[in-house]
Structures
1.
Amino acid sequence: MVLITGGAGYIGSQTNKNLSLAGYSTVVFDNLSRGNLSSVKWGVFEEGDLSNIEHLRSVFNKYNITSVMHFAAYSYVGESVNDPEKYYYNNLVNTLNLLKIMREFNVNKIIFSSTCSTYGKPTKIPITEDHHQIPQNPYGISKFMIERVLSSYASAYQLEYVILRYFNAAGADSDLTIGENHNPETHLIPLVLDVALGKSNCIKIFGTDYDTKDGTAIRDYIHVSDIADAHILALNYLNKGGKSDAFNLGNGSGYSVKDVIDVSKKITGKDIRIEKVNRRSGDEDCLIGSSLKAKKVLGWNPKIKELEEIINSAWQWHKLVNS
C-alpha cells in the first residue's frame, strides 16, 4: 500500500488517481489546509498533519504501508520569504517526522516531490540534474535541504528514494475529475483562465523587460497527468532495484507569459485584459528543464506536450466547475 502525503492537493490527487488505476492500493494523508477533500476519489483518506507524530504512527499501524509518495508541503515563494519559519517547520521538520516513522516501521522507499527552484539562478538552458543547486528563497531552500536529508538517510539507514524536480505543473485530468484549485491561486494558467471566465478583471504581467523574445518570462509547462505518471515509473524503478537518484520533470521547451495569454485567448475565444507591472524579485528570465535523464532511466515520456493541449485541458475543467 502506498501512503500519499498531501494527496488531496493538485499533483497528489492526480497521482493518487493514476496509482489507483494502475492497481495500487493507496492511503491519502492530508490536513486539508491547502488540499481539497473533493479531490480524494480513490483509496482511503486519513485527515492528519505530519507534525502530529503519534497520529502518523497510528496510520502506519493501521495500514500495511510499503512505500511513500511525499507531496505535503507549503509552496508559495512569496510567503516563504515573508515567513521562512513556517516553511522550515512544515516542509523540513515534518519530513523528518515522516522519515522517523518510516524507519520505525521498516518502510524504506520514498518518492519526493521537489522543485526546479532548488537550482536557483540558471547558468545554462536547458537545466540538467548536474546543474548547481543554489536556491534563492526559503521554499527552494527547504526542498533542497530535504534532498540532502534523503541522501544522508540513504547512506546511514538504507533509505531508497527518487527525487522528482518539477518545472511548471499545469493542466487538468482528461476526464475532468481533477483540476488546479489553489487558494490563493498563484499559477499563471488558472489566473489567465479566471479572466476569461470573468472572475478577474485582468491578468498582471510581472515584468516586460526580460531578455526574451517578447520581454516576458519564459517557463517550461508540464501536464499534471504526466507528472503523476512519472511518480509511478519512479516507484516501479525502486521496486526493481533502481538506485536512489534525482530527475527533472519538464517538457524541454519554454513558453513566455505572452505565449500563454495568446494561446488562452485562442482557446477560450475571450478577450483577456492585461496589466503590466514591475517584475518580482528573484524571477528569472528563462527556466527550461532537460528531462532526458528521466526518459532514459525511468522510461518516462510526456503524453501531453503542446501548450495548446495543456491549456485546453485546464479550460475545460475550469468551465465545468464554474458552470
2.
Amino acid sequence: MEAKKIVTVGLAAVMAMSLAACGSGSSSSKGSVVSGSSSTGSSSGSSDFLSIEVGKTDTDLKGTVKFLTNRTDMLKDDYNGTSWKQYIEAFNKVYPNITIDVEGLTDYANDSLTRLQGGDWGDVMMIPAVVSADLPTYFEDLGSSDEISKLYNYTSGKTYQGEVYGIPITATTPGFVYNKKVFEQAGITSLPTTVDDFLKDLQAIKDKTDAIPLYTNYAAGWTNAKWDDVIGVTTTGDADYLNQKMLHTKDIFSDPGDGTGAYNVYKALYDAVKNGCTEDDFSTTDWESSKTKLNNGEIGCMMLGSWAVTQMQGAGDHPDDVGFMAFPMTVNGKQYVNANADYSFGINPDSKNLEAANIWVKWMTEQSNYSANEGGLAITKDGKSADFYKDMEDAGCVIEENAPAKSGEEDLLSDLNSESELNIGSIISAAPDKAF
C-alpha cells in the first residue's frame, strides 16, 4: 500500500493553525483485553454472510473470534453505557460456544494499519483508513452492493467495484453538541440555520453567560477534521457533490456568496476565533474534561458528531441539558445533514473461524442495538436510530448520505487529498478511546 494514500492530516487543522500556534500529541499504548465465553474449539472454512440467520444458523458452533477495536473505553468496568462484556454476554446467550476476544488499541488509527499490513490482527476489525482498491486484499467480500443495500444502510464507503467489504458499526451525522441551558441563558430561542446566525449566537453566549461559546478541542488533533465532515450534502444540498462532482470542480473553497459551501464552514471557525468566542489557549484543550464542562454548562457547544451526545450526557449530572444540532447552513431553503458511516466491521478472509466471525458481525449489526445505544442511525433497514434524530427531522432537516464515487474513481478523492496535502476529512492524531 502506498504511504501517500493513507490519510494523515486535516484541512480544518491546517486552517486553524493560521489562527493560533499550538500542538497536539498522541498515545500509542495498547488497551486491555476482555473475553466472552470460556469455551474452546474451532471452526474453519468459508461462510456466506448474507445467508446467516442470527439465532438460527449454527447456534452450537464452536470457535474463537479475535475482535480489534478502538473503543477501549467499553472494556472498562465503569463505562457509562453498554460495555463489550455486556454485548458479549448477550451474544453468548444465543451462541454459547463462540468466544469473543476483544482487543482495544488506544492509537487505533495508526496501530491498526500496522497490524493490518503485518497480518497480525485477528478475525474481525474496525476497518482503518485503507484505499478502496485495497479492500479486497484485506477483507472478506460480504456480497454485492445490490444485495447488501437491501438489508443495510451506509455501506457505500466500503464498496469497491460493486462488492461490499464492510458493514458500519454505526452511522452518525456531523454537527454541534450543545448545552441547552447555556443557549437559553443567552436568550437563544431557536437553533441557528445559517452561519451568520450561529456567530451571533456565539456572541450572545459570550456576552450573557460565563460559558466558553465554542470549544475547539484543538489539542486533540482529530477534532479539527470534524469541520471537514460537513462538506458535501450539508454545504451543497447535493448528494453527488463530495465524491463525484467536487473532484472535477475548480475553486471549491471560493465564496459562493449565499452563505453555503466549504468556504462558509471554515469561515464560521475563523470568525469564532477572531471574535474571541473560543477557548483562550488552544494548546491546553482537553478532550476528557471537555465532556464534563459541556454537561455542566461551562461550554456552549463543540463541533463533533452525533455519536458524542451519549458521552456528553453521561459525563455529569445534567444529561437533559445536552442536545445536538445540525450544522447551521441552509441551501435553497432547506437544511441538509450528512449521514456518514463510522468505522465498519471488516472480516479477515484468512480467518480460521470465518463462520463464527460472520455470525458475530451479523449479531452486532442486527441484534445488539449498538448503533442506537451509541447515538447512531439505524444500520439495518428495519433498525432503530437514537431518539434525537427525530428531533432533527421534525425541524425539517434532510438527513442524507453522500453518494459513492463513480466506478473507476473510488480512490480519486484519496489521491487528490494526498497529492494536494489538503486531506479533507482526515485525522491528524489518533482519536481517543471514547471517540469514534
